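Changelog entry

Holo records now carry the ligand SMILES as an explicit input line rather than a separate metadata file. Below, a converted record for adenosine-5'-diphosphate, shown in the new format.
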Amino acid sequence: MGEPANNDDMISVQGLKKSFSGFPVLKGIDLHMARGTTTVVLGGSGSGKTVLMKHIIGLLKPDEGQVIIDGQNVSTMGRAELNVFRERMGMVFQGAALFDSMTVGDNVAFPLREHTKMSESEIMERVKEKLAVVDLHDVEQKFPAELSGGMRKRVGLARAIIREPKIVLYDEPTTGLDPLTTESVDQMILMAREKLGVTSVVISHDIGSAFHIADRIAVINEGVIVEEGPPAEVRKTQEPFTRQFLATWFGRA
Ligand SMILES: Nc1ncnc2c1ncn2[C@@H]1O[C@H](COP(=O)(O)OP(=O)(O)O)[C@@H](O)[C@H]1O
Ligand SMILES: [Mg+2]
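Structure line, unchanged by the conversion:
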């Protein structure tokens, strides 16, 4: 079992273990994320980041341990309960595909039309408000293809926050993006925290981006968290894997 949960934690991952066909992927993860903070889970590909993320949203069940979100055990929830619970979570996945045949406004409004009985005028107002959070204005009538890559990412976030979640999860938000678009996505993540006060979890192997946006960085290697702390401390760590991993970006000290 992991450490006991703290009431200030929005997300508490406790003693999480998961194997696939006898191959251990998560080997006992303990991770606590305070309300309103941004935590970047940093690690190489195949280190178990997405598997961890899927446990946080309840898509995978642990072999051992649990995930507690806002005081509730996500790991023991059934399907119906999870569906209701996921209202509190906004997800921005790598592909974060928008519907190309729909306008930006309809894309962002989609979760409201699917899950709520809000009136059309309430929906339009909410769409405008969330697009403004990500610094997009008067784009409702445009189609995704008319926007830049960074703007499309922002539309994806506007859609993820349209139901006003307390938590936003991002899986590899900057992977494969050029430096300018990466910068724009980093700004978007910072804005979401500042304007919405959400708790954010960013899964990433982008070291530069992690040090830009994180309140705390957790480094994962082969299913174990080897380092966790504020960026300035992680930067100075003596932990061998983290030092080696960071050297690929910062160079050797
Ligand atoms: N559903 C699954 N079944 C079997 N193996 C899986 C499954 N999901 C992930 N894995 C394995 O777990 C390891 C970690 O994967 P993943 O969490 O996706 O890595 P990443 O850190 O790149 O996101 C990989 O070896 C992957 O092949
Ligand atoms: Mg992944």
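Spot-checked after migration. The beta strands are 9-20, 23-34, 38-42, 64-69, 72-73, 89-92, 167-171, 199-204, 216-221, 224-229. The chain has nine helices and ten strands.
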